[in-house]
Task: inverse folding
């Protein structure tokens, strides 16, 4: 307890640097964030005039973002250093970094306004899987980006019931609705950080290393905490379900992971982990579930009996059947209670837009332009074809990961599968990387390269979306660059401090990578 109250010196420096960065970022968001179109939020804070200084807001926001990202990266060195912080200390750091972002307008996305509009449609009895917010109209419509105003929702009934509750409570009060949706997202983040250390221990990874990569990384702060994306709820439920499965609580695990998939569909892949662990439990009289560990990190001797209880085929059929029945019953019950129907199944392609910058869509646009220049009639089919190729590649990567599940471990294989789906699928947003990143943080080999590359990907994706959620102009890009450059002298001064010594990995304990 004392270590959490008085963190190590290097951790304290990171906390202060990151807190300063988060405060500057949140302050810049008052002028350059994803503010309501109608001037409702700023007057409530008495800061209406800041909306007229977007350039200065961008300078302040990117100054803070540079400090926050540098603090997180340096904290990674502390985690694998000579005086590493405890998990409680890391949670204290996370709370300090998150507080300024919680109290301010959303950043980097306007999706929270779409959530409110979709929740209002559910409350009004409209079919959100047939029409977009334009079918309802009203003051919330102006807050939804034009590209999504006529688009049905892709989200499952579990999330829509939460959005409907917030929308019904806040009515047309946009600030109250924004903070209500943020409270929902924060509940998901709290569930995530409560279960992640336990899941990491089950996978043979140090909880501190898992928290640094999976909970304190900038994508969580920017997009789950500040942006209030519903991926926070999905990930919280998914990690909670995986933790329950590792504890042999398979019924609970199935129900919770099904609820996660009724927020966003990709979480359904987690049910594969439940089926595999359940059939292992049926086949062997085991106490701790060794199946989640890769072959290179076996369970302790004597912890698992090798005496089969039932045959492999019988165990697999029973596990699959039980999981499928529980998942179907949970889906039917939630759908009946919310009354939204099963339209979300046919709306799973909704996030795809003509301007999507996913890998497959980008290659598709390049191919289309080349075919148009050549006068080919196949130009119109280029983007759909490449999207299907991307999905096929994601499916192939998923099958390959599960083929090597004994060497990788089940949770690690799940993380790689979700990462492949996010990167190779038809739609890509920075926060989609978190689908795979969080399981990878809990289960990837502590001394492997995947952690380092995943961390680098987090750094790259922090600058791919602007605070307003819109495409920036040249002047806005210049303001953002100026803000980042202003942070350089401070970072140089901090770099002059004596950094925590990094101990080489000896194969006896996890490191931050």
Result:
């Amino acid at each position: 307890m004392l270590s959490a109250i008085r963190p190590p010196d290097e951790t304290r420096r990171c906390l202060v640097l990151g807190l300063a960065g988060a405060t500057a970022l949140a302050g810049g968001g008052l002028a350059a964030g994803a503010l309501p179109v109608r001037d409702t939020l700023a007057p409530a804070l008495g800061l209406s005039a800041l909306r007229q200084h977007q350039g200065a807001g961008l300078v302040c926001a990117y100054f803070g973002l540079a400090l926050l990202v540098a603090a997180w990266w340096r904290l990674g060195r502390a985690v694998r250093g000579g005086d590493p912080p405890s998990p409680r200390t890391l949670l204290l750091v996370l709370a300090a970094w998150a507080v300024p972002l919680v109290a301010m307008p959303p950043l980097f996305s306007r999706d929270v306004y779409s959530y409110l509009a979709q929740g209002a449609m559910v409350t009004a009895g409209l079919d959100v899987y047939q029409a977009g917010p334009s079918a309802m109209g009203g003051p919330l419509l102006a807050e939804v980006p034009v590209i999504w105003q006529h688009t049905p929702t892709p989200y499952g009934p579990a999330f829509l019931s939460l959005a409907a509750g917030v929308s019904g409570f806040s009515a047309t009060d946009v600030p109250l609705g924004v903070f209500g949706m943020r409270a929902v997202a924060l509940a998901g983040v709290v569930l995530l950080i409560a279960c992640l250390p336990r899941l990491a221990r089950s996978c043979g990874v140090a909880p501190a290393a898992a928290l640094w990569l999976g909970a304190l990384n900038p994508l969580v702060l920017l997009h789950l905490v500040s942006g209030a994306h519903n991926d926070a709820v999905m990930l919280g439920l998914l990690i909670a379900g995986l933790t329950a499965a590792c504890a042999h609580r398979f019924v609970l695990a199935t129900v919770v992971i099904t609820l996660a998939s009724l927020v966003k569909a990709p979480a359904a892949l987690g049910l594969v982990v439940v089926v595999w662990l359940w059939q292992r439990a049926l086949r062997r009289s085991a106490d701790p579930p060794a199946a989640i560990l890769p072959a290179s990190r076996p369970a302790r001797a004597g912890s698992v009996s090798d005496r089969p209880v039932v045959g492999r085929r019988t165990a697999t059929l029973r596990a699959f059947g039980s999981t499928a029945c529980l998942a179907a019953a949970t889906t039917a019950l939630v759908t009946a209670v919310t009354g939204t129907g099963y339209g979300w199944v046919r709306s799973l392609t909704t996030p795809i837009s003509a301007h999507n910058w996913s890998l497959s869509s980008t290659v598709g646009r390049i191919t289309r332009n080349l075919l148009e220049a050549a006068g080919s009639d196949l130009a119109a089919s280029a983007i759909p074809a490449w999207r299907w190729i991307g999905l096929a590649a994601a499916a192939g990567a998923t099958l390959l990961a599960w083929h090597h599940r004994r060497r990788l471990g089940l949770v690690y294989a799940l993380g790689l599968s979700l990462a492949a789906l996010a990167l190779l699928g038809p739609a890509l947003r920075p926060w989609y990387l978190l689908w795979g990143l969080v399981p990878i943080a809990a289960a990837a080999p502590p001394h492997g390269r995947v952690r380092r590359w995943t961390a680098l990907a987090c750094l790259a994706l922090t600058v791919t979306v602007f605070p307003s959620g819109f495409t920036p102009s040249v002047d806005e890009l210049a303001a953002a660059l100026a803000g980042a450059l202003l942070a350089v002298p401070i970072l140089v001064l901090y770099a002059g401090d004596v950094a925590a010594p990094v101990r080489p990995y000896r194969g006896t304990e996890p490191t931050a990578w």
